[in-house]
Design goal:
The protein is built from 7 helices and 13 strands. It is α+β, with helices and mostly antiparallel strands and 367 residues long. The chain has one domain. The relative contact order is 0.21. About 2% of the residues have low confidence.
């Protein structure tokens, strides 16, 4: 069981579970008081679900349908984490300060610019709120989001959602994405407090209600598998700058060998290789904490509709994700094989103690 309460929300630096259900929501015709009440209700419901208990309880016992949708009964907590955030449009939308929160909007919670390779679908982008439910059982993750949406009936609607997964690997091993490459080799570790404080957790530069939280960039990236599968192994490895089987960078022998961007000859990492363009050394030493998951959707025709739900946490997207993605969109060899179809940015609340509610400081007072 992963504790719900704490200094930071679980589901950020927590070791990745094997499944995620991500949902972006729009707030409908709610007042600020109703929004505050909803987040208080969600806080208690999420805390119970992460213990493996129904979201709504009665008489000290877990309730049964119809008070709980029931599909997770008997499955246990499955390492469930539920993580909540708010989007830019909750503060201002079309110039309107919807809930009197405009002055509380962090500067870092800025709408993402359009990148040169974007092919964004508006129905798969944006949102007022987000819920990220991760668990080692896909039905437990789905149930968490379903229950929270149900409890918000009349106040929120689902704007877009994505279920995704990771392969089961040995502890400490790096999972592979659906292009067959290891994904996350140089990621920030969840126990690296120095790196987390520097690159992930919001600090004094953010409003008081956000300190200890983080900023989430969510991107839905489709893989053009027909094109990828038609390329040679040499082309694929040059695209990433890593060996497909071992995960070693060019010039190295093992997955975690240091990346040498100065190597020449046969060890040289191509100028347009993904690993070179995304490396901290080429991005003012900036890093992000990635929680990527693979997805496969229903489709028609010859293409297999598959891709990556890219979830990245950071201290300030303007200084981290945005410049990195601009560099990638300009010349990354991987662009030939992918398509960015969805995008959103959220301010993810800091954690709370028992008796507190997520967003309580932000939504204090009435409007």
């Amino acid at each position: 069981m992963v504790p719900f309460y704490g200094r930071h929300q679980a589901g950020i630096a927590t070791p990745q579970q094997s499944n995620v259900m991500f949902a972006s929501l729009d707030v409908t015709d709610a007042s600020r008081d109703e929004l505050r009440g909803l987040l208080r209700y969600w806080t208690g419901a999420a805390a119970r679900m992460t213990r493996g208990v129904a979201a709504v309880e009665g008489g000290g016992r877990p309730t049964r349908p119809p008070w709980d949708t029931g599909e997770a009964l008997g499955l246990g907590p499955s390492q469930l984490t539920v993580t909540f955030g708010v989007g830019p449009s909750l503060f201002t939308s079309d110039g309107v300060d919807r809930f009197g929160l405009g002055s509380q909007r962090p500067a870092a919670l800025a709408d993402l610019p359009r990148f040169s390779t974007d092919e964004l679908d508006p129905s798969l982008s944006g949102g007022d709120l987000c819920i990220q439910a991760c668990a080692d059982d896909e039905q437990v993750a789905f149930h968490a989001v379903r229950e929270l949406v149900r409890l918000g009936h009349g106040l929120v609607t689902v704007r877009w959602s994505q279920a995704a997964f990771l392969p089961r690997v040995e502890p400490g091993a790096t999972p592979r994405n659906l292009l067959g490459f290891k994904d996350g080799t140089d990621n920030i570790r969840g126990d690296d407090r120095t790196a987390l404080d520097r690159f992930v957790w919001a600090g004094a530069e953010s409003p008081a209600w956000m300190r200890g939280g983080s900023y989430l960039v969510a991107r839905r990236i489709e893989f053009l598998l027909d094109r990828w599968d038609g390329s040679s192994l040499q082309e694929q490895e040059a695209t990433f700058g890593r060996r497909k089987v071992s995960g070693a960078p060019f010039g190295g022998r093992a997955e975690h060998d240091l990346i040498d961007l100065r190597a020449g000859g046969t060890d040289a990492i191509p100028a347009n290789a993904h690993v070179r363009l995304a490396a901290p050394a080429t991005n003012s030493s900036q890093r992000i904490l990635r929680r990527p998951y693979s997805f496969v959707d229903r489709g028609a025709g010859s293409q297999l509709p598959a891709g990556l739900l890219f979830l990245a946490y950071q201290r300030d997207p303007r200084r981290q994700f945005v410049p990195i993605q601009r560099r990638l969109s300009a010349s990354d060899a991987l662009n030939e094989y992918i398509r960015h179809t969805g995008s959103a940015v959220f301010a993810v609340f800091p954690g709370v103690r028992r008796g507190q509610a997520l967003g309580g400081t932000l939504l204090a007072g009435s409007a």
